[in-house]
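Work Package 3 (structural annotation) set out to generate three-dimensional models for the target panel prioritized at the project kickoff. During this period the team completed the workflow that converts sequence records into discrete structure tokens, so that structures can be stored uniformly alongside our sequence database. As a representative example, we reproduce one entry of 388 residues exactly as it appears in the project archive.
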Amino acid sequence: MDIWTEGIGTGAEGPPQRNYFRQKFVYCEAKRTNTLMKRLPSIFLLAALLTTFTCGTTNNSSVNDGNKYVPYDQREGEEAVVYFTRNLSAEGLIAAYEKVNGEITGKVGVKLHTGEKNGPNIIPHEWVEALLKKDLPEASIIETNTYYQGDRYTTDQHRQTLQVNGWTFCPVDILDEEDTLTLPVKGGKWFSRMAVGSHLTNYDSMVALTHFKGHTQGGFGGSNKNIGIGCADGRIGKAWIHTTPGQPNQWDIAEEEFMERMTESTKATIDYFGPHVTYVNVMRNMSVSCDCEGVMAAPVVTPNVGILSSTDILAVDQACVDIVYAMTADEHHDLVERIESRHGLRQLSYMKELGMGHDRYILIDLDNGGKRITAADAAKGLKPFVRE
């Protein structure tokens, strides 16, 4: 066993396996030195590119459909249920969550993007505090450190940023603060296992509370991105998703291949939780930029919409995308361009191929007595974006 595979579990099935990295490992970027790198040897970056975790990537061609939107009437299969409210407030968030929380039991982790310092578009912490106080008083927010150097690259930096952004009302568990472990990826073509923060398996249930918006690499960021990138640890899992070994571009994996790798990462986590995971997407302050870009995010031009929830990850992300496409051309131009130019729609088709959910759904209007509506109904009468 060479230095890149020592201490790393392999195999498509089986329980989580912890990775205990040896000090003898060689660091590929000696200039990156900080407290975290001294404590968790910085071999992380090259170890993260471990090819034995892929399933023969040179032969894994991707379906080139990520820039092609499939209208609802051209989809096949059963329908899931997605709930929708236009009430963008703590009360709306609670109402949407309470429709999909039936299997959320035991120790609960709330996975959300807590943002870079002073990020203008993240879900308001006051909303999240109200939700936790009412429905999840013992829950923790769960996060991981970033793959890029920024305000959340190390655990110490991350905790300072949490303070700045107001995430002080409940415990925040940085899942990869101590170590990583791997979870099996069932049916994946890029991975047999995915590296996640080692604290993830301390939880019985997970609530994916997602700010739906654009994304520089993924086209859009919904529940799939929140989990697939957000639960992968900052040194290994994220590198497997983003970077090809042996070349200098940290972000070289893109388009369909990136969407598929990210989605396989998500599958590892939601398979672990089984029925004990649920999804809430907040369509507010939808910049084409991810919250990782903080105050540098592109200006918001897409109208605010509302909050959607489901126990089906594909259905909730698909419904958000459908609402965006149902907007007028002026309303959705920037966001659709971002989605299609990055081939982000491959997230949806690949989730369906992997059996992660349904791209057909019943959209329930919580503001009008549970009436069934369409994405076009949800997109009617939107007001031009005005920052609060």
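The first strand starts at residue 17 and ends at 19.
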